[in-house]
Amino acid sequence: MLRLPWFEFRAPATVGEAAKILAGEGPRAMLVAGGTDLIPNMKRRHQSPQVLVSLRGVEALRKVNGALGAGVTLSELVGDRSLKERHRALWQAASLVATPHLRNMATLGGNLCLDTRCTYYNQSHEWRQAIDYCLKKDGETCWVATASKRCVAVSSTDTAPALIALDAKVKLVSSQGEREVALADLYRNDGIDYLTRRADEILTQVSIPAGWTSSYWKLRRRGSFDFPVLGVAAAAKLAPDGTVEEARIALGAAASRPFLVEKAGEFLKGRRLTDEVIGEAAAMTASRAKPMDNTDLDLYWRKDVAAAFAGYALREVRGDDMAEIRRRVARQPLL
């Protein structure tokens, strides 16, 4: 049985109180909200904070008043039918995370700050010790790309690519003040240092501009539970005649960060979403996917299928009924 290391537990009631604790404890402390990622990581000794600062009791983080509080659970997002109408890609992404039990605990902020994953990292301490650890934790070698000086662990958040496509921004609060950044700028292409959020900052809310028609498609081995091995989100602002006024396509699980495929978005502007235009934009999107051999399924196939999934997302944005294709993708086991 994997056991948690010893730690102190703090339960602040406000964001300000939590920020003061982080500032005072420094690197000894880590934030925990739902704990669906951090607690298993602590059991495997990926992280061993001496102080856990719980955000579960901070009611301000659970409010939805124009912006989404970072403490809102994924189940609460899925249960919000108005969210499905306003920001469909986010609703779809939240509904595809893990299982209902985990979505009941997992929070929006936690999913956005999810640790990167790798075959050689997400193992027990004893397993990792047997290979002399890895570059991401305690070792000196990246076992995926042994000549690499950078960790290539992959981003596995579902909500981030959806929100990047929706041009979302996040608020970060510390004892020093607060700042707002575009969600795309929250991430670095580095499996270890994957967030630009400082250790003393708390992600408190997510704001999403209106006017986007959006879609999110996820590839995984099973129809539920599994992390994405590819995530594609598309969003567009459409004129009454169907012409694309603005478009954004984001990729997830294809690098150490979720990222915007700017070339594809620029290509779509001023065009209608015909099959030919969608095909070209999908090919541009797939060309940016750089999967590594550190997660599930064949990396070359995952790169090839990126074009199909980008096409699915854009066709759904166009207004096509993709329900049957979604059902086939969800129930088809990938063996």
Detailed description of the structure:
The chain folds into 2 domains: 60-207, Uridine Diphospho-n-acetylenolpyruvylglucosamine Reductase, domain 3; 213-331, CO dehydrogenase flavoprotein, C-terminal domain (Enolase-like, domain 1). 33% of the residues lie in helices and 18% in strands. With 335 residues, it is α+β, with helices and mostly antiparallel strands. The longest helix has 20 residues, at 299-318. The chain has helices at 15-25, 38-43, 74-78, 81-86, 88-95, 100-105, 108-112, 125-130, 159-165, 262-268, 275-288, 299-318, 323-331, and strands spanning 8-10, 29-32, 51-54, 64-65, 67-69, 169-174, 177-182, 202-207, 213-219, 230-238, 244-252, 259-260. Strands 4-5-8-6-7 form a 5-stranded antiparallel β-sheet. Helix 5 (88-95) runs antiparallel to helix 9 (159-165).
Distance between the termini: 29 Å
Described by the principal axes of the CA atoms, the overall outline is globular
Number of contiguous helices? 13
Q: How would you characterize the largest beta sheet?
A: 5 strands, antiparallel
How would you name the oligomeric state of the polypeptide chains in this document? single chain
Radius of gyration: 20 Å
Question: Which CATH class of the largest domain applies here?
Answer: Alpha Beta
- The fraction of residues in strands falls at 15-25%
What is the averaged pLDDT score?
A: 96
> What is the number of domains?
2
Structural class of the secondary structure composition?
Answer: alpha+beta
Strand line-up in the sheet with most strands = 4-5-8-6-7
Low-confidence stretches: none
CATH fold call of the largest domain: Uridine Diphospho-n-acetylenolpyruvylglucosamine Reductase, domain 3
Helix-strand string: EHEHEEEHHHHHHHEEEEEEEHHHH
Question: What's the total count of β strands?
Answer: 12
> What is the CATH architecture annotation of the largest domain?
2-Layer Sandwich
Q: State the helical fraction.
A: 25-40%
